[in-house]
Amino acid sequence: MQTKKVADTLPNSAIVENFDKYLNDNGKRRTPERSMILECALEFRKQFTVEDLIEAMSSKDFFVSQATIYNTVMLLVEAGVLRQFSVDNRSHYERADNVSFIHLKCEHCGKVKLVKDTNFMAYMKARKFPAFTTSYYNFTVYGICNDCARKIKQVKRSSNSKKTKK
Ligand SMILES: [Zn+2]
User: Fold this and answer.
1) What is the distance in A from the centroid of ligand 1 to the CA of 155?
2) In terms of residue numbers, what domain contains 139?
3) pTM of the full predicted structure?
4) What is the rounded distance in angstroms from the CA atom of residue 117 to the CA atom of residue 156?
């Protein structure tokens, strides 16, 4: 079977071009601040929060007000550069051109891990739903993380040993 190699993401230049077109169409300009924020946001390969972005910006000595960062992130979502989704009622963002990730969520501590599953991607690409074209998926698998599993085991063990002492 032949598998086509799928690039993880679009080249950044293509994204900048699309963003410029969006700004133009909406009578907006790409200010130096917007360019810096876009550059930083595109460096995240996985999900991030606005706080992560603010931290990344200041580590590069890009000093832009938090309000500008928030507004620009909203603009990037509107322009289709970033995709917004909520994890534990907090907004997370990722490149809209990212290949889809599966979110593995621990039901105990709420931690979310992103994993890529190329088999599942290929399946979704091949799967035809009537009158629908899939562009991406945002899907969460619930379970238990190793840290929580270990803690639960320890609690069980200690309560068992207490019982035997009695
Ligand atoms: Zn957990």
Assistant:
1) 14
2) 99-166
3) 0.65
4) 34
Residue 2 is assigned to a structural domain of this protein:
no
CATH of the domain at 126: 3.30.1490.190
Residue 43 tokens read as: 């460096």
Place of tokens 């990722």: 94
CA distance 94 to 153: 35
CA–CA–CA angle 76, 78, 84 (5° rounding): 75
Q: How far is the CA of 105 from the centre of ligand 1 (A)?
A: 8
Tens of pLDDT, residue by residue over 130-160, are: 998 777 777 789 999 999 999 999 998 888 7
Within-domain flag for 1: no
Q: Is 89 left (phi over 0), alpha (psi -120 to 50) or beta?
A: left
**Cross-strand bridge partners of residue 113:** 104
12 shares its domain with 93: yes
